[in-house]
Amino acid sequence: MTKFASYPSLKDARVLVTGGASGIGADMVRAFAEQGAKIAFLDKDADASQAIAQETGAQFAICDLRDITATQAAIADLGPFDVLVNNAARDDRHNWQDVTPEYWDERLQTNLKHMFFTMQAVAPAMIKAGSGSIINMGSNSWWEAVGGFPAYATAKAAVHGLTRTMARDLGQHRIRVNTVVPGWIMTERQKELWATPEALEAHRQNQCLPDLIDPVYVARIVLFLASDDAAMCTASNFMVEAGSV
């Protein structure tokens, strides 16, 4: 059985996770709750949100993150926060020939735009406190030149630029901003939609490690970056991709 670390600095830490009702986000909510953090999350799936809240004791707000006004209002109601995890995203496949300007804009709203505005919403309280940790979720897909979702890949590539510029702007207040870069994580969504035996075997060949990646391992690196153990880590990428090439 894997023995994971405990982080005393996370006890009673006020943490917000976007997209916390399912997939990687739900594992993050569980992991922070196990550390004794005061965890809250945003999601648009009411049933899944209620289930995770009952399991973990987390607070939540039902929110479409593409609605920036509603998102920032929800953060104001739930906050303030010491930690923000910008997790929410959707890697829907799309053919580059079929992409319309409207679809492109919607994909960037879904996968990038809300990250900046959630940061904008939580930062004033962190500045007042003189510390904070913001963790943005990137993706290894564009590093590997994976095709089939150009709008998603573009949004995820842009996350790295957002992380580094905000790390500079917020660093003077001892607010750290980092990117976690997952590989192909075996969430239920991935298993249902794309994880065929052939695709999994091909992916194993690209990884240095032979095991498929459980969402819990993404949650564990997020815990580290949220904790005081990572006090000197900012503007950086933290890969959880089993050495994919």
Summarize the structure in words.
The protein has helices spanning 23-34, 46-56, 68-78, 101-129, 150-171, 188-193, 197-206, 215-226; strands at 14-18, 38-43, 59-62, 83-86, 132-137, 175-182, 237-240. With 245 residues, the chain is α/β, with parallel strands linked by helices. The protein has a single domain, classed as Rossmann fold. It has a seven-stranded parallel sheet, with helices on both faces. Helix 1 links the parallel strand 1 and strand 2. The longest helix has 29 residues, at 101-129. The chain is globular, with a radius of gyration of 17 Å. The two termini are 28 Å apart. The mean pLDDT is 93.
For the structure shown, list the relevant keywords.
single chain, 7-stranded parallel sheet, alpha/beta, globular, Rossmann fold, 245 residues
Number of strands: 7
Distance between the termini: 28 Å
Based on the coordinates given, report the CATH architecture: 3-Layer(aba) Sandwich
User: What is the name of the CATH class?
Assistant: Alpha Beta
Q: Could you say which structural class the secondary elements and strand pairing correspond to?
A: alpha/beta
Helix residue percentage: 40-55%
